[in-house]
Structure formats: structure tokens, C-alpha cells
Amino acid sequence: MKFKKLATIVLLAGALGAVQARAAASIDAPAKVLASGAPSAQASAQLIAQGRYLASAADCVACHTAKGGKPFAGGLGIASPVGVIYSSNITPDKATGIGDYSLEDFDRAVRRGIAKDGTTLYPAMPYVSYARLTPADVGALYAYFRHEVAPVSRTNRATGIVWPLSMRWPLRFWRMTFAPAPVANADAAASGAQRVARGRYLVEGAAHCGACHTPRGLGLQEKALSDDGRYFLSGGVVDGYVAKNLRGDRQDGLGAWSEDDIVAFLKGGRSTHAAAFGGMSDVVERSTQYMSDADLAAIAAYLKTLKPAHEGGAALVPDASAALKLRAGTARDNGALTYVDNCAACHRTSGSGYAQTFPALALSSVVNGADPTSLVHLVLQGGQMPSTKAAPTHYGMPGFASRLTDRDIADVLTFVRSSWGNRAAAVSADQVARIRRAVGAAPAPSRAENP
Ligand code: HEC
Ligand code: HEC
Ligand code: HEC
Fold first, then answer.
1. In this structure, is residue 183 part of a structural domain?
2. Where does the secretion signal sit in this chain (predicted)?
3. pLDDT tens column, 84-101
4. Same domain, yes or no, for 148 and 35?
5. Which atom of ligand 3 is nearest to the CA of 274?
């Protein structure tokens, strides 16, 4: 059923693409930028270093390395609604990698999603974001992959997508409809002269924050690729976690975070407001912690310019009554009692946690999001903070899947979402049951002996 629906969407997108029939954009080729005289050894070392930095900011290694495999040799399975897509070998091996890709071939793949043989790449490769890269930055990436990445012989694996969806030609229409043409004037934005412009360039481009944080439309396209609508970075779902709203909303966005809080989070995986978990833990560990302080500050400055996604969200106000009740031992409902027994040792009766160790639940933008998926997922399976240069300790939270029933988890999260000043909707046992199945968590304990 799902397949059929998607096929319709792809065909629909195809029709749209044909109607729009964008004029082939005249992209300025990176070759032009690089062809200005043979570079000196020092200049090419500099170019390679710039490419290494960008590859890390763009997290190429995340998708292009299989579990336990060699860096960039591909073969990681990426789930999509149509089936599994395997990433390509992008090491400079001539036979199985991209060793015979010219700079133009590389540029077409990275910024436009077109492989050397002319077929369109699945958008699991975030070329809609990389379209924002400047020609100079593409040239630097190319130099790095060409001269510093070790060649690995590993043949690409065909997708696990069944016919007819495995045909690549409809992807061409998807690309024509949804992928932007590389931005010709991006150089100005990348100059670093303006902090916010540099932040925008990194967020929309190399760091592809929107690939996770922007909601997707019917064609599975990101609803916005830049801040020209309120959808951009207003929250998406990846691998069973909500990649939450990063806009200015005060309840569930970054409205209450300072620029320094954002920098601390991207650098150390924790701030006074939250700890990174799920996919964000990997992003911090592999990518953002290596960004320069100036670039992190630029990203923070840019994020703080984003208007709230929803009108009229008032700031959350602290409320001491839940903490007083817990401490006095007068709370009787299952949610509060489950909290005292299982959570308060780390997150405290005040919900304020311990700075840099156990995140606060009171007034947290994660806790106050409309969609509780992340919270249920975390309570079921636990989590571990990323380990970074700035904050090496992996503090962890145990999973409660085999200790708490769906009812207990719904009640404790409902308690958390309505205490200490938090103001988010209740969670139902049905929601928990659904997420328990979807993420493959252990079955709930039977409570026959203790109904
Ligand atoms: C979110 C996952 C993801 C990230 C991040 C990513 N890629 Fe990819 N990439 C893929 C997938 C999946 C494919 C294969 C798509 C297909 O088969 O249609 C691919 C394909 C490619 C190809 C085409 C190879 C070929 O055989 O023609 C190149 C080149 C490439 N990626 C380079 C990069 C570079 C450089 C970066 C970092 C700047 C990067 N990718 C980051 C997922 C990713
Ligand atoms: C691979 C998917 C992915 C990418 C790419 C990604 N994020 Fe995230 N991000 C998530 C998920 C999932 C969460 C929710 C878990 C959490 O709060 O740690 C999250 C949470 C966050 C939070 C915490 C917000 C809060 O209120 O607690 C911030 C800040 C953030 N991301 C910023 C960014 C920025 C900036 C980028 C780009 C540089 C980025 N993310 C790229 C998946 C991603
Ligand atoms: C052993 C200490 C410990 C216990 C017990 C514990 N947690 Fe946690 N909790 C943590 C840590 C550490 C994190 C950060 C996890 C990560 O980054 O992956 C966390 C994260 C969270 C978050 C996300 C907060 C944010 O903004 O990042 C929520 C919500 C949460 N816990 C709820 C609970 C609930 C509900 C319980 C009881 C059922 C509980 N925790 C029990 C240590 C604990």
C-alpha cells in the first residue's frame, strides 16, 4: 500500500517536474575557480585542509561508512520509505570508488545529485542542501577526497528497493521538481565577513541541518530549504526521534536559548537546557564538535534570527508546586509515584537535574514539544550523551522498556509534561505501545502480581 502511494507521488512529482521544466541553471563551475594557475604546494595543502574541515562539517563520513567498514568506502544501509538505499564508495579507488571522477563529475554528484553515468541519485544523499556550497568549497572537498582519503576497493551494493520503484528515471523528475539549482552567488554569503550570513551558509548547506530538522511534504521533500517560510527547521522525525524545532518558539524551540547555549550544545553535546540524544548525539560527536568557535558562533547567531514557527507561544514560567508535593510525599497518582521511583535520583524532584550531567526536565524545549515520540523512545531505550573533546564523559540514562508498562510510561511522561511549569499535552498508553513496537523495544513487564 505504502509502495503504491509512493509510486503515485513519484509520478505526480514527475508530472509537476515536466510542467515546471526548469531551464538548466547555469552553474558556475568549480573548475573556473581552481583553474587560475597551477597551485603551489602550500596552496594545495591549504585547499586540502579546507576540504577536510568541510567534509567534517558536512558529515560525509556518517553516511558513507558502513558499520565496522573503512571510512568513506560506502555500503551503509539507509532506510527509506521505499526500501534500503546503500551509500556509495567515495574513496579515490579507480575501479569501485570515485577515482576517475573529474571535478565536474564530483560537482554534479554533490551539488546536483547526478551520478557520473547520468542517473539521478536518491535524495538520501543530501544534495538539495549541498547545492548551496560555493564552487570554491566543492573544489576543496574534491582536493581532499582526491589526495588525502585512502582508496578502498569495495564494490557498490544495489539498493534493496523492489521494481518498479527501483527504476531511477522517475527520480529525475523528483530532482527537477524539488532540488534547487546550485546557488550562483553563494560566494558572498560564505565570505565570513558577516556572521549571520556565514551561519546561514553552513546551516542550509554543508551542515544540512534541515535534512533532519525540517518537516517533509508529500513527495518526501523538505518543505523549505531556507528561511523563506516558517517550515524551515520547524521539526522533523528521523529514526524514531523528533529532530525538534530550532526556530524562535519559546516553548518548544530555541527561543529561551542564548547563542552561548547553542554553541555549548553543538560543541559538547550538552547545555544548561538539554543533552543531545538519538541522531543528534552522532552529529555532535562526529561533526559539530570539530567546527571552529567562529563557525559555531555564526550558526548560533543565524539560528537566533529565525522567527517562531507558531504564533503567540508564551514563555514557560517555573512552578514550584509539583516539587513541593513530591518532597512532602503527598503525591498519589501513578505518574508522580513512577517518577519518584525511577527518575528523581537523576532528574531530581525539582526536575532541574544536575548541570552538565543529568539534563533538566523543567521548562525543557524537548519535554514541551507537541510530539512526545522522542521522550517515549528515550524512556523505553535509554540514551547516552555524546563524548566530545569539550565534555568527554558519556553520562547515560537506562532504558525502562522491560521495567515499566505502557501505562506507567504514559503516566510518568504526562506528569513530567505538566509539572514544574511545563505545559505539554498528556501521553496515552496507546501512543507508548505504538512507539514500543516501532522502535523494537523489549516487551512490557506483566503486572499480574501487582495490578
Ligand atoms: C545523509 C547521508 C549522506 C551524507 C551526509 C552524504 N552522502 Fe553522499 N550519498 C549518500 C547516498 C545514500 C548515496 C547513494 C545514492 C544513490 O545510490 O542513489 C550517495 C552518493 C554520493 C555520491 C555519488 C557516488 C556515485 O557513485 O556516483 C557522491 C560523489 C557523494 N555521495 C559524495 C558525498 C560527499 C562529498 C558528502 C559530504 C559533503 C556526502 N556524500 C554526504 C548519502 C549521503
Ligand atoms: C541526522 C539528523 C540531524 C542532523 C543532520 C542535525 N540534527 Fe539536530 N537534532 C536531531 C535530533 C534527532 C534531535 C533531538 C534530540 C536532541 O534534542 O538531542 C536534535 C536536536 C538538536 C538540538 C537540541 C534542541 C533542544 O531544544 O534540545 C539542537 C540545538 C540541534 N539539534 C541543532 C542542530 C544543528 C544546528 C544542526 C546542523 C548543524 C543539526 N542539529 C543537525 C537530529 C539532527
Ligand atoms: C541514571 C540517571 C537517569 C535516570 C534514572 C533517568 N534519566 Fe533521564 N536522562 C539521563 C541522562 C544522562 C540523559 C541524557 C541522555 C542522552 O543524552 O542520551 C537523560 C535524558 C532525559 C530526557 C531528555 C531531556 C533533554 O532535554 O535532553 C528526558 C525527557 C528524560 N531523561 C526523562 C526521564 C524519565 C521520565 C525517567 C524515569 C522514567 C528518567 N529520565 C530516568 C539520566 C537519567
1. no
2. 1-23
3. 999 999 999 999 999 999
4. yes
5. 26
